[in-house]
From TrEMBL:
<feature type="region of interest" description="Disordered">
    <location>
        <begin position="1"/>
        <end position="22"/>
    </location>
</feature>
<protein>
    <recommendedName>
        <fullName>Sel1 repeat family protein</fullName>
    </recommendedName>
</protein>
<dbReference type="InterPro" id="IPR050767">
    <property type="entry name" value="Sel1_AlgK"/>
</dbReference>
<dbReference type="InterPro" id="IPR011990">
    <property type="entry name" value="TPR-like_helical_dom_sf"/>
</dbReference>
<dbReference type="InterPro" id="IPR006597">
    <property type="entry name" value="Sel1-like"/>
</dbReference>
Length: 465
């Protein structure tokens, strides 16, 4: 496949300058005679020499005589030196003539330095109307923050069609959150074709959610070409499902090196399968040191099995058990009992933590969970976790597979579990929102906490925990 070119980033603004012209003496004479363009050129000449005071003097002369480029340069000069009120005045002078770049700089200064969102929005509108792609994007984000999603989409669309791939990516999320999967697919594909790795990855997740794993894999590979760690993780999982352990290891290790704890754990598992205990210890150890209880448990097992390191095993079992890992607590209790610490062993064996949900969800459900987390968390939104949402979707999926009769799942689960119907209905409602975005607002962390409790209670009552 063709590797996309890197997306160019806009360079920082630089003072404006005309093309080369007269020498210094000629410019000085013309400027002193009132020639605004000559004064602007003279200011630039002094700026290049590092004589800022002289540059400012001649730019002020030029701007006072109507030279817009000098007014813009003075705005930049004062912004750089922290005299913001002066910068605003000069930017306003340039922006008032219809200069899009001055209007965009003025809006950014008002927003980021003065906290004046209404003023910033006015000047972003001026700049965007004059063709500034940057202003159109910033305006779209302001509209999102204000809850004006229709206007936000209009401005993102304008910026996206003008080549702003980040806005195209955002349009995909706005479409997905509204339940418009065709719109999401269109804009993510648009951005992906331009080289936006995150758009390719999220389109891959959407294809997985729509049960098209072949297209998803192609998109993950495109994203992985740009070092997208999540795409490497997905490709590792695909290779593992095919029992191609060496390829799976390569992808998981690539994601693990980016600091993804869950992929460090998966790299450890695959290395165990490949009988590379040294590499498995490395990855389990890194993940365990980051607080991953499953990795701590497996690191403890490995230390005991491969190195007869009972102290090391006890240490990591204890870390995992303290974090609520059921099997680690049992292993710790057993180890303590054979090393003469019977009293503490009894504490762990008699009251271990409750078992955690460790079943793998179907790929389309895991993809929906990750898309929901990404969509709901944009612009400082709801903070959810993929593991929690996957557990909710996976629980519903496993429990309702038992339903053979043409009954309503909520009614059936309520009758089987004896839970209150409202709790099961809430679980069903949140699950529906995750599967079919746009039907309701994204759930809050508090809702997820309650729904998780319901899911776990259901599993316990129906014998699945």
């Amino acid at each position: 496949m063709t590797i996309w070119p890197e997306v160019a980033t806009a360079p920082p603004p630089i003072p404006r300058q005309p093309s080369a012209g007269e020498g210094e003496a000629d410019l000085l004479g013309a400027a002193q005679a009132g020639d605004a363009l000559a004064a602007h050129r003279l200011g630039r000449l002094y700026a290049q020499r590092g004589d800022r005071a002289a540059a400012r003097h001649w730019w002020e002369r030029a701007a006072g005589a109507g030279n817009v480029d000098s007014a813009f340069n003075l705005g930049m000069w004062h912004e750089k030196h922290g005299t913001l009120d002066e910068a605003i005045s000069w930017y306003e002078l340039a922006a008032g003539t219809g200069d899009a770049e001055a209007a965009a700089n003025l809006a950014t200064l008002l927003l980021e330095q003065k906290g004046d969102a209404p003023g910033a929005r006015q000047w972003y509108e001026t700049a965007a109307a004059a063709g500034s792609r940057q202003a159109a994007r910033r305006l779209a984000l302001l509209c999102e923050d204000a809850g004006e999603l229709g206007k936000a989409r209009d401005w993102h669309r304008r910026a996206g069609l003008d080549g702003d791939l980040a806005s195209a990516h955002d349009l995909g999320f706005l479409g997905y959150a509204a339940g418009e999967e065709g719109e999401a697919r269109h804009w993510w594909e648009f951005a992906a074709r331009g080289g936006h790795a995150k758009a390719a990855y999220h389109l891959g997740l959407l294809m997985h959610a729509l049960r098209d794993p072949e297209s998803a894999e192609v998109l993950y590979r495109l994203a992985a070409q740009h070092e997208h760690a999540g795409a490497a993780s997905q490709l590792g999982a695909i290779a593992l499902a095919r029992r191609d352990l060496r390829t799976a290891r390569a992808w998981f290790e690539r994601a693990a090196r980016a600091g993804r704890v869950e992929d460090q754990r998966m790299a450890g598992f695959v290395c165990v399968e490949l009988e590379d205990s040294a590499a498995a210890s490395h990855w389990f150890g890194r993940a365990a040191a980051s607080g991953d209880s499953e990795s701590a448990y497996n690191f403890g097992l490995l230390l005991i099995a491969e190195h007869a390191d009972l102290n090391g095993g006890e240490h990591w079992f204890r870390q995992a058990a303290a974090a609520g890992h059921y099997r680690a607590a049992l292993e710790l209790g057993t180890l303590l009992s054979v090393t003469g610490k019977a009293a503490e062993a009894e504490q762990w064996l008699s009251a271990p933590p409750a078992p955690c949900w460790d079943r793998s969800a179907e790929p389309e459900l895991a993809a929906r969970a990750e898309l929901a987390v990404a969509a709901s968390g944009r612009r400082g939104g709801t903070t959810l976790t993929v593991a929690d949402l996957t557990e909710i979707l996976g629980t519903w999926d496993v429990l309702t597979r038992r339903l053979r009769e043409p009954l309503d799942p909520v009614t059936w689960l309520t009758e089987k579990s004896c839970l209150h119907a409202s709790a099961v209905e809430h679980l069903s409602s949140v699950r529906a929102t995750l599967i079919r975005p746009g039907t309701a607002p994204w759930p809050t962390p508090t809702e997820i906490e309650r729904v998780l409790a319901t899911a776990r209670d259901l599993r316990k009552r129906l014998g699945l925990s």
